[in-house]
Amino acid sequence: MSKSLQAIRGMNDILPEQTPVWRYFEGTVSRLLDNYGYKQIRMPIVEFTELFKRSIGEVTDIVEKEMYTFEDRNGDSLTLRPEGTAACVRAVLEHGITGGGQVQKLWYIGPMFRHERPQKGRYRQFHQIGLEVFNLDGPDIDAELIIMTWRLWGELGIRDAVKLELNSLGTSESRGRYREALVEYLSAHHDKLDEDSQRRLKTNPLRVLDTKNADTQAVLVDAPKMADYLDDESRAHFEGLKARLDAVGIPYVLNPKLVRGLDYYSKTVFEWVTDKLGAQGTVCAGGRYDGLVEQMGGKPTPGVGFAMGIERLVLLLETLEQIPEEISRQVDVYLCAFGEEAELAGLALAERVRDQLPNLRLQVNAGAGSFKSQFKKADKSGALYALILGDDEMAQQVVGFKPLRGQGEQQSIAWDALAAHLATCVVQG
Ligand code: ATP
Ligand code: MG
User: Does CATH place domain 19-171+231-319 in 3.30.930.10?
Assistant: First the structure.
């Protein structure tokens, strides 16, 4: 017998029972982004490998070991996107929509691919909603991004479960000076560092700061601090951001070890973390990347953005039981018809009702069946009401209207009056 077909490890199906939560989440976020004046952009899922090497940096975990890279039939090296910023920058440059200082406030949604070890909250195909703003360099827009996510957590009912961590990596000049001091200090303690950190010390020294190794962490206690190396510009930017968060009343903790996995960040970096999901606690992360567009061949263009992990946020909604009950009900009314003549009349009636109530979720029974079996299906559908068309109803040109969730007795409604009646008893989404 042939081996049964399976999905690739770490790449998940999202089954019909789960999609309502996803759509609720995605709908809530996209409405919020619309309301703050952000516009959606859609990029391809596959790009030239070179794009990610140039933007993310050769010596990051993503580029070193997590990318899905392959050769296509032309011999080009292509990569399934591991994140969205690179492709978004490529797209705005290619179409010239950030030229001349044009402000762009963009967002995107879709699958990302990283060859990581699959576990709860960490997958190989996962989904992000991301956002990028170009040509605004002040702390006001950094603050807006954070304020917007704060509102989102509020709307979703998960505000108490997440915490904002904040840091500044400074301008590239001040980061350069800090890197030198850090390398000097860590080199003096080289033997006490774990192997990974010894390697990072050469390739990407700031990444040593987010080591999980206890011995290395002990060495870091007395290491130089970024905060002492910020120049006036970086300091003023960071203070400006904090003042705005204070004005809106958003609590945060300063985390000097927050450096983010990607090379391109500068000044503001932040993460929203939760302790409700175990080790995979970061649900949204981002920061400023003022040098990236130039690094990718464009004119100097300030940028700032973030990405949130949809799987982790859906898990958090489920864990905290913050899923509104009404989102899982997908049928308002279920029409049962008995006999061929009733079935034809039922079809026509259903279409007339749909003409008048385009948002009504009306399901017509398919596959015929006895009275009992159609009722069972009506009940299982989750519908609030069943509509019944049998011989008696046909004769009188009425439809039986039966509450399925215990709201009163069955009544007869004239066909012509059905839509008006449904409008009064079904709240339409
Ligand atoms: P982590 O530290 O958890 O590996 P990261 O710093 O690599 O995250 P980013 O590249 O900043 O993550 O992506 C933004 C968000 O996307 C993360 O905060 C997380 O919510 C989500 N995310 C990242 N990688 C995965 C993954 N493999 N599976 C599920 N969600 C992910
Ligand atoms: Mg990662």
Answer: yes
